[in-house]
Structures are given as C-alpha cells and as structure tokens.
Amino acid sequence: MTELNLNNLTSDFPLLNKLMALEEVVWFNPNVTTLEQGLPYVGMDETDIHDASLRLQRFAPYLAKAFPETQLSNGIIESELVDIPTMKTALEAHCQLPIKGRLMMKKDSHLPISGSIKARGGIYEVLTHAEKLAFEAGLLSESDDYSKLLEPEFRDFFKQYSIAVGSTGNLGMSIGIMSAKLGFTVSVHMSADARAWKKNKLREHGVNVVEYEQDYGVAVEQGRKEAEQDPSCFFIDDENSKTLFLGYSVAGERLKQQFEQQQIVVDKAHPLFVYLPCGVGGGPGGIAFGLKMAFGDHVHCLFAEPTHSPCMLLGVHTGLHDEIAVQDLGIDNLTAADGLAVGRASGFVGRAMERLLDGYYTLTDERMYQLLGELNLAEGIKLEPSALAGMPGAIHVEHNSEYLTSLGIDDTTLANSTHLVWATGGGMVPEQEMAAYLAKSSV
C-alpha cells in the first residue's frame, strides 16, 4: 500500500491512527442490522446448521469409541457453561466500574480431543471429508453405525488420501489429531508463532509438521500450494471454508439447550452479549452465526483481537476486508496470543457477518496475561493468553451509553442481561507452559 493511499485511509478512517499506535480501541458497528436483513449475505441458514448437527450425531458412536474422553457425552464434543462471579468482582475492582449483568464463560478451552474451540470446526471438516470419501467408495451409508470406521479396512482406505492445513496452532491440533486417528496422511503447516508443545503433540500423533519462520498467511499459502500438487490431498482452508464455519455454528443450538437447562432467559428484556476472540475469523464467525440463528436479534456478538493483530476490525471498518492486512499499516502482527496472530482477515467471514456483529475491540498482550492470572486466582480456570481476549467485553458494553441507547437498553434491562465470555483454548497446555504464562501475569 502506497503512502498516499495510507494517508487517504487514515483521513477517511481516523480510528486507524489508534490501531497504528497499538492503542486499545473499541468500535461499535454502525451498520449492524437485524437478522432478517443480514442473513441473506451469509448465504446459509438453519437448514445448513441442522445438516451439520445431524452429521455430528452420526459420527458420535465412532468418536465415543475412538476418543474415550468423549464417552460421558456419548461422542458429542461439547463444553461446559459456567458462572464466573468471582472473576466478575475482580474485573469490577480492576476497572473500577460495575458490571450489572451476569458474567459467564463457555469453556471451549476444555473441549475434548484437542482442547480448544477448533475441536468444533476442524474436527467437523475432517469428518465431513471422510464421510464423503467413504460414501463415494460405497463403504458407508447414513444408516450405518459409524463406529465401523474403527475397522482396519477404513484406516487402509483413508491412508490413500492426505489432508493439509495452515495453522497458528489450535486448528492444526484438531485437524491433525482427527485426521491421523482416521488414518489419513496429514500435514500441518505451522507459522512462526505456533507453540513448540503443539508441534510436539502433533508429531506424537504421527502428523507431519512443516515449520515456517513467517506468519500465518505464509503457512496457509504454502500448505495450499503443496496440496494443489497432489490430487489425493484435501486442503482445509481456514480463510474461506464454509464447512469449518458450519462446524462452529452448531454451538448456537447447543448453547440454547444449556441455557434452557439452567433456566437462563434470552429475549428483549434479557439480552445476551457474547465476546469472541478473533484470529482469521472462521471460528468466531461461525459461532456468531449459530448464535444469531438460535437467539435472533436478542444476542449481540463482539469480536476481540490483540492490538498487534487487529485484522478483522481493520477489514470490516475500512470495508476492504481481505484486501488489507495489518502489515499495510506498519503493524507487526507479533502477539503472545498465538491463536490470534493473523494479519489478514477472512474475506468470506468479514463480508458474510459484518452486518450481524455489534462491535470489535482490541487489547494488549499485557492485559491478556493480567486477565489470565486474575482468572486463575478468582476461579481456578487456566487458559492460554488468546482465550482471555473476550474477558473485558462486558466493561466495554455496559459503559458505552451511545451503544446501549441504540439498542434501547436501560439499567433495568442491563441488570437482566447475560455476558458470555467464549474461552477458546488452554485445556491442553502443559503445566510448565502454563506456569510460564502465570509468571507473566503479575497477579
């Protein structure tokens, strides 16, 4: 991007000056619409989510046997919904501001198999591909008991095929572990910021890990190029995959069931605010879509990004989406939040969801570490840094009067609201690594 263009951009969008200065910012989307108005731009609806949900049910008997940790949930990969009242008190004390609503956490950080939110989309896309291949070969039909996939003939069959993906870490973990379990040859192309323990864990599962000294964009591009040279290789495209997106979206109907079980009401008088850490955008985009389909206009989703990697905020705010990267502004895309270290957002997700997302905010690495320590102290919950990005969201929402007025939310409604922090990763972080995180928290 030329200097002249950059000057024009910062003139048209003054917020970019704050992004370039690596300041924490909050931007509420003036173009947010109703679900009815925004849904046509997504190009998918509840029928697609239902289809994804049924596919996951078909695979449940297989997953329950292949991964014993899913036996209690009968092969359904799902996470806990918990209250975090002590953390709410800690947040209020730190910010010296009250939070009137209820503060909860969705622990996708502790999803079985791969210990992160990516266990939703990544595993779903691998299963979808495996099912398609097995159907085409006449080895499987929808009415079968899918636990037959454990039989040697299926592993021998899938060995003929390979899967590739580019990842900062967690997506690679979910795809690598699942693909290897089924019998696929799998390569995970990992960016410079990917943690060594994630690479090691993948290798333990027989996954081919390809390391790069560059960032996420380069790892994805190289993975894509390698896959193009091999007709038997299926490349999982985190930036543009509608299958990944749908795998995440099933979380909406699952959360609705959990709310009903806990008698939590979501309606005009009881709004729901959800805070989602955002990297390239597939995970939070898919979940936000599922939440909108489950709760309609009564749920309000905000994306959270590191100050060094605000790619989705940048793309949506300027309307340039994947035609601009944070590096174009001189932002280095270097962050401790490895899962969010993405310089260029998904154009597909940005364009599909920009009318259905209420806002975006950024936070520093130091803030994420501090919140990591506070959460551990307050609730005994251990997360990786990127998973804390959603934590300050309730403060931003409750103390922006212009935004609340635009929604018609008064103090009474706010007191009846639920704030949900979507915890995205950390359940499989080794003790030594977690101790290092906590040491940086200064709590």
Give a quick set of tags describing it.
single chain; 443 residues; alpha/beta; Rossmann fold; 2 domains; 7-stranded mixed beta sheet; 4-stranded parallel beta sheet; 20 helices; 11 strands
Describe this structure in words.
The protein has 20 helices and eleven strands. It is an alpha/beta fold and 443 residues long. It has two domains: 6-113 and 243-439, Rossmann fold (3-Layer(aba) Sandwich); 117-240, Rossmann fold. Helix 5 (85-95) packs across helix 16, helix 6 (118-136) runs parallel beside helix 8 (170-182) and helix 8 runs parallel beside helix 9 (196-204). It starts with a helix and ends with a helix.
CATH domain topology of the largest domain: Rossmann fold
CA-based shape: globular
SS strand fraction = 5-15%
Helical segment count: 20
**Could you give a short account of the major beta sheet?**
7 strands, mixed
Mean pLDDT: 95
N-end to C-end Cα span: 41 Å
Strand order of the largest sheet: 1-10-9-8-11-3-2
Assigned CATH class of the largest domain: Alpha Beta
pLDDT under 50 segments (min length 5)? none
Percent of residues in helices comes to: 40-55%
How many beta-strand elements?
11
EC number: 4.3.1.18
GO molecular function: D-serine ammonia-lyase activity; hydro-lyase activity; pyridoxal phosphate binding
Enzyme class: lyase
Protein name: Probable D-serine dehydratase
